[in-house]
Amino acid sequence: MLAFLGAIICIIASVHPAGTAAPAAAAAADNDSAAAALLPAADKGLGALHGPAEALASAGPRLPGGPQPPPLFSRFVCTPLSAECPAAGPGTGPGPEELLALRSAAAQLRRTALEQKERIRMDQETIRELTGKLSRCEGGLRAPPAGAAAVPPAAGLRAAPRPGTMGHPPAEPPAVRELEEAVRALQDRIDRIEQELPARTNGSAPTAPALARDALHTKMEQLEEQLLSKILTLQKERQAANTDRNQHQHDIEKELSSLQNRVTELEHGPQGYSPPDAFKVTIPVQNNYMYARMKKSLPELYAFTICMWLKSKALGGLGTPFSYSVPSQSNEIVLLEWGNNPLELLINDKVAQLPLSLKDKAWHHVCVAWTTRDGKWSAYQDGEQRGAGENLASWHAIKPQGVIILGQEQDTLGGRFDATQAFVGELAQFSVWDHMLAPAEILALANCTSRLQGNVIQWDDQAVEVFGGASKGSFAACEEGRKA
């Protein structure tokens, strides 16, 4: 610190003007003697900061054969300070206020240099970051206009601070101004790109992948519409074909039945059943096209009794002696024995098993009775009640306008028969009442002591049609029963 203060004092002394010419001359003589005493004898050149006049004069250039130029340095000497601080006194050194000002100026110079250095480093990093962002933004856009300001490379910017005067901060270096201008230019270019980008996005035409995707979606929708239209057309054609096939089959069966009846008449003479219910329907083979159909349908019923005579010739199950189907329910009333299952009564597709045994190839009188009240039912074989129960389609009303088929189970209204569920044998005296008959009435029918006719469906030659090879023949219930 003492050396630094000594250097400052020397600088002040060199620039301080001389008071008068006489003291200056005296001081020069004193300086010559002092310099000669301080400098080593061997060093007579520029090795020392100051020296005697001769040494100083010898340091300058000399022109041969002419007058010599004046010496380059003033004739003065700076007295070196000792390690100990000199005692305060008038004329011995700067005062405390000057030392404090000098220290403040030196510290401020250091702080200013450090701040400028840090600012330059931060500006360089900002320029590098903005330059990278600008390059990525300009990658998908057009080149900047020709008049756009060029960005100087960050590596070429260098700080060149200039020293200021003591007590005042130095002026802003040119490198800082260049950095600020480069940052402003980069910001202007980024602002222009951000303004142009939405307009280009909104006004630009769809890209090729987008157009291809839209075209593919449109084509797929068209193909789906065409496929759906073809499916609907095929379904309509299939329904029409099924209807035509069923109608054609029905017509063929009707013609076959007419031909068979005509052949029978020609062979045996015209048949006349007396009384009209004295006939039976014979189905000789188990298939899906031999059956009989009642011309009359059922009204809405809340109870019924169905009785009939039957003789099964099946090796396995009894099959389906009768079935009643309506448009909304194919199993409205069905009497069915299929495979190894017991005989079942189905009402509105609800099932009750009947404990009847009818597979001995003999004539049997069978009756089933039902009422919607609590779904009560009862089953009779040969006039005797064999089973009864409740909760069979309780509170259900038998729907009207259906089809009654003898010998086949209907999967649709009036058709779609299954050969495995067909009845094989003979049927007679099929009758329907709209109430539950008393057990005594059923017993009288089975013993042939009563000729009670059904009040809904009566067994009559004109009310029964046969199809597919099924035939009619004479039948006397009591005589057939005695033979059996």
Written overview of the protein:
The protein is built from 8 helices and 14 strands. It is of the alpha+beta class and 484 residues long. The protein has a 7-stranded antiparallel β-sheet with strand order 10-9-8-3-12-1-14. The protein has a 7-stranded antiparallel β-sheet with strand order 7-6-5-4-11-2-13. Mean pLDDT is 75; it is low at 15-64, 72-76, 82-90 and 143-168.
Beta fraction of the residues?
15-25%
Low-confidence stretches: 15-64, 72-76, 82-90, 143-168
Sheet with the most strands?
7 strands, antiparallel
Number of strands: 14
Query: What is the helix tally?
Result: 8
- Residue-averaged pLDDT: 75
Q: Give the H and E element order.
A: HHHHHHEEEEEEEEEEEEHEEH
Q: Order of strands in the sheet with the most strands?
A: 10-9-8-3-12-1-14
How widely separated are the two ends? 149 Å
- Given helix and strand content, the structural type is alpha+beta
Structure in a nutshell:
Helices cover 39% and strands 18% of the residues. By secondary structure, the protein is α+β, with helices and mostly antiparallel strands.
Task: Looking at this protein, list some descriptive labels.
seven-stranded antiparallel β-sheet, alpha+beta, 8 helices, single chain
Topology summary:
Blueprint lengths: L1 H14 L5 H18 L14 H7 L36 H43 L35 H30 L4 H61 L10 E5 L7 E4 L8 E10 L6 E8 L2 E9 L5 E5 L2 E5 L9 E8 L5 E5 L2 E6 L13 E4 L18 E9 L5 H8 L17 E4 L3 E4 L2 H7 L1
